[in-house]
Amino acid sequence: MFNQYLMDNLNFTALDFETMTPERSSACAIGLVKVVDGVILEKYYTLLKPIPDNRTTTNTHVNGITWEMVMNAPSFAEAWPKMEPFLVGQKLVTHNAEFDIDVLQHQCDFYNIHFNIQGVVDTYQLTHKSLDEVCSVLHIALDSHHDALCDATACAEVVLTLSGKKLSHPTGQTKKHIKAKELSSEAKQPLAAEEVENKDTTFYQKKVVFTGNLTAFPQREVIAELLRKYGADINTSISRKTDIVVMGSGAGPSKMKKIQELQTAGYDIRVIHETEFLQILNDENIK
Fold this sequence. Notes:
The protein is an alpha/beta fold. The chain is 33% helix and 17% strand. It is built from ten helices and nine strands. β1 and β2 form a beta hairpin. It is globular.
């Protein structure tokens, strides 16, 4: 297969960029995965407002990101305070480092951000295969290729696997491909009360709907399955029975209108924006 890859210490950050146009300055999303002592400890994802260029061709057909989605996104400089702990003083891991490190350098140069990269590991150079090919060979999940956080996570898991670490997956197998905003039938099937270990949370026995893009959870399936463990009944449409709407950026106008109509009619629908949502997850130890 591949020669086993051994890093002196498994402390690094896996990185992936998506770009809006063929220009490498046009970063429109970043995924960061921090590994400490061989364990994935933290993840960060955000859409980015691209540095303007004159290209009319976009990469929407590859990564699904449109100009409308990034119109109100933070610039790289605005997102830097959250990204800095992942990047400064860290060895970086990426697949095709020539691309991602060049994109990173364009962002830093444009916004006058200076830091020293402590080293780069290129999983393409290690394997000489595309990311989807190496993930297939190593049985690593790549549920949404060209989603920046998905690809960064896959890069981290490639290094961990080649370094002899065994990855644990709850089901023991990879799920079929699910698009970023899609939900599997399993995620939409609520647990019986006796199956819920912690019933003392905001979401227990509440009908929950997601709308918009959640920066911390670009794959809606991930957060849906998490809340389901705590007794949430995950729905895809807003109705009179809806208890909670978790709202990210770019929420659909039809859902916004429906919420307003139902609230005006006296239905008690709680709208939780992402910042508050993340605080609730932290306060109630939902993980």
